[in-house]
Every structure is written in C-alpha cells, then in structure tokens.
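Late entry, evening session. Most of the bench is empty. Finally got around to the prediction I had been postponing all week. Sequence below, unchanged from the version circulated by S.P.
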Amino acid sequence: MVEQRDLADRTFWLAKEEEIKRGETTDIYFINAVKALQAKNLNPKVVMEVYTRKLPYSEPWAVLGGIYEAAKLLEGLPIDVYAMEEAEIFLSPRSSTIYEPVLRIEGRYQDFAVYENPLLGLICTNTSLLTKSVRVKQAAGDKMVLSFGTRRTHPALAPTVERAAYIAGLEGLSNVLGSKLLGVKPAGTMPHALILCFGDQKAAWLAFDEAVSEDTPRIALIDTLWDEKAEAILALETLKDRLWGVRLDTPTSRRGNFRRIIEEVRWELNLRGGEKVKIVVSGGLDEEEIKALKDIVDGFGVGTAITAAPIIDFNAKIVEVEEDGALKPRAKRGDLSGAKEVYRFEGTFRDRVVPRGRSIEGPWRNLLTPLIEDGKIVRRFKTPSELRSELKMKISRLGEAEVSLTT
C-alpha cells in the first residue's frame, strides 16, 4: 500500500459524480463476476428486483426514495427499468414471506452488474431519510418541525437530507445549499456561539434583531448562560413585541424534567403578556419525545434523529435468467423466483404481489411502471413540491386505511 498525505485529484474523500456514473464506486466482487462471465463469453439476459423484507419499525410501511437518482444512474445503459414512484408508500409486513419489489431491471447482466452497489446505496439512503422524516412529522402533527440535522452528516449529503425533509412535509430547512437547490428560504434561529461571543444574551439578541431580514422570525435561544425561565423573561423584556419565539436546546444532562422546564417558561411568558410567543425545542429529539411534548410546544428542531435514521436494508436479486432464448424463473435460496408485479386497490393500502403477466380484475393499480426503456428515461419526474403535496395526502389516509399485503 502506498501512503499519501494528500489526495492527488480531490480535496475530500468523496466520489465524483462521473465516477459514480461510470460504476467505479462498486464492490470488487462485481468486477470479478463480470471478468468471469467475459472469460466464458456468457452474458445472459436477466431480471433483477430490488426489495426489502424487513423494516426497522413496528409499522409495516415505509416511504420510497432514490428513484430519481436511480434513473440518473442507470440512464444510458441498454436496459429496461420499472419502478414505483418517488415517495410512494410501500409495504413490508414482518410476518410475510411475500415482498414488494420497488424496482425491477431487465437486461443483460454484464451491462449493469457494477451498478448494483451505487443503486442500492441511493435507494437505501434516500428511503431511510424520507421514512424517518415522515415519522417525525407524523409525531408532531400540526406542530412545526424544522430540519436541523445536516451538521450530523457528511456535508456532501446535506442536499439529500433536506430534500427528504422537505418532501416529508417539514416546515423549515436550516441548510443553505439544500434550501437553495429546493428553491425555498432556509429557516433557523441562532447558535449558542453568537451569545458566547457577545458574553451577554441581551446584546446578542439585539444584534440578531438588527442583522437579519425583517421577514426572519425573531426566535431567541434561551438556555446559554442562565436558567431557561430567567432568559425567557429577559428575551421578552428585550425584544418585546418583536419576539416571535424562544428556543430551548437544553442538553439531556441538564434537563431534569424537560416538560416542567417548558411549563415554567410558558407560565412566566404568559404572566408578562407573552401569550403569543412561541416555544420551540431542540436537542436530541425523537418521535416519542415529540409526542410527549407537542401539547405544550409550538415547534421542534430535529436533527440527528433524521440524519442518523435507521437504515432500510434493500437487496437486489436476480429472479429470472435467460435459458434457450427465453427468461426462466431462477433465484437463490430464500428468495422468490420469477418477475413480480405489485397492485394496489385504489383508495386503500391493500396490495397484491403476483407473477408478471397475471391479470387482476377490479380497480387495482400497478405500482411498477416504466422508468427506463432501452436506456432512455421515459417518466416525467414530479417536482419536490408535487411529491410533498401528494405524500401529505397519502399519509393522512394511512392511519385510517386497511394495510395488507397478499398474493
């Protein structure tokens, strides 16, 4: 191994877009497989399905992400691809042998073998972020949720995190580049560093009020130097009617009973005419804490819970292989051979997985539709705003609808 202090062609340990597009971020065993097939002049047509059999949550559903990037990755290859829509809700019950393919590739294996690695990475990452973001927003209900998490992930992934948070319905994104790419204004308050630099809360809040644009809500951070209750009173006395809200970012080690601290702050603000001042909390929050506090809190800043979302583990497996000029069912042990279709009964989350080619009578919609035909993208991609609106409606129905997966 050759040691080197600096990278020769880049500043950060990051793959370039063109390297990903060329399949260079693959694992070596895919290269080995291609070499072995080439040596024997073997390149059969196959059908490969991407699916997961296990979710890291008790609920049997998740929200699919990464289809847009999957299409960009595979564009130009001599293959056909069928996939669910971006931000579609798919099912994965714990007790069922049946699984729902979210994407299907048909083509000669050597033509796309090295892309399995980046394809799974794109779908796993985006689906995990999107599903967790939806769960966080579900927990908060009609209360505001701000995405504060990009400091907890590689900066190259900041736009990916914010896109997932936006589509999931979060009301504010703190990351500047992520917001710019989505065409929305970034949202945020102030860091503890601002107050520590001034050494005085009042001076810091006044400087913030003078520096930021008029349409930026004046949210004062109130847990830097004093007790939260005392700083809340001082913030109200300092900014008066311009104070939109206060934020508590109290670390777990200092919280004690966090709910009681918030109740004290609410009482003292109300007592002094600050009934309209909002209370925003942040710092290591997850779904259960959000549910426990949403009756007394107006907004939540959520970071690590989203960026460190539990990984939804997708697989890509061959289910059909060409024999004597025709595709035949073939799969490894434990998998279900044969290409499959996923149908959903309109207006419900009742899904059926059936062998490709089998018709179903009634108002069933096929969730796997053409994405790429002979290397060309054939689907119109919906904007993040469209996906956000459609997902909100689906999630609103999810709690009341029957959720089932059958064959």
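Two things to note before I forget:
The chain has 15 helices and 19 strands.
The longest helix spans residues 116-140.
Will write this up properly tomorrow.
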